[in-house]
Amino acid sequence: QVQLVESGGGLVQPGGSLRLSCAASGFTFSNSPMRWYRQAPGKERELVASITSTGGSTNYADSVKGRFTISRDNAKSTVYLQMNSLKPEDTALYYCNANYGYFGRVWGQGTQVTVSS
Questions:
Q1: Which of 22, 55, 66, 105 is the most buried (most CB within 10 A)?
Q2: Is 19 exposed, middle or buried (0-12, 13-18, 19+ CB in 10 A)?
Q3: What is the number of H-type helices and E-type strands within the chain?
């Protein structure tokens, strides 16, 4: 089955770091661009970062640029989001997302990140 499973979320103090992981299965991961989204309660879902199938190019939302890094390990079918210098406004449920084939689209279940003193 086509599936994405996120992990690595938790509670961290402002200025701290977390690394999120998203493990993929059921499709050809190495052919698929990957993305991280986040959504806070009452807020619109926001595209945080994206990465090409080879990992050769990345893009970031202005709000996280310079603090977050997206990467992938195609041998492990896993995409990562390294989050540094975390701020309270980064608090959200973080989802990974993949496009595969011509029209396929899959979301993970989400992992909670809470930044608080």
A1: 22
A2: middle
A3: 0, 11
Nearest CA-CA partner of 110 in 8, 40, 6, 12 = 6
Q: pLDDT by residue (tens digit) across 43-70? A: 999 999 999 999 999 999 999 999 999 9
H/E segment holding residue 93: strand 92-100
Q: How far is CA 63 from CA 24, 29, 76, 89, in A?
A: 26, 27, 29, 10
Cβ atoms of residues 76 and 91 within 8 Å:
no
CA distance linking residue 109 with residue 93, whole number of Å: 9
pLDDT digits (tens, 9 = 90+) for 1-50: 999 999 999 999 999 999 999 999 999 999 999 999 999 999 999 999 99
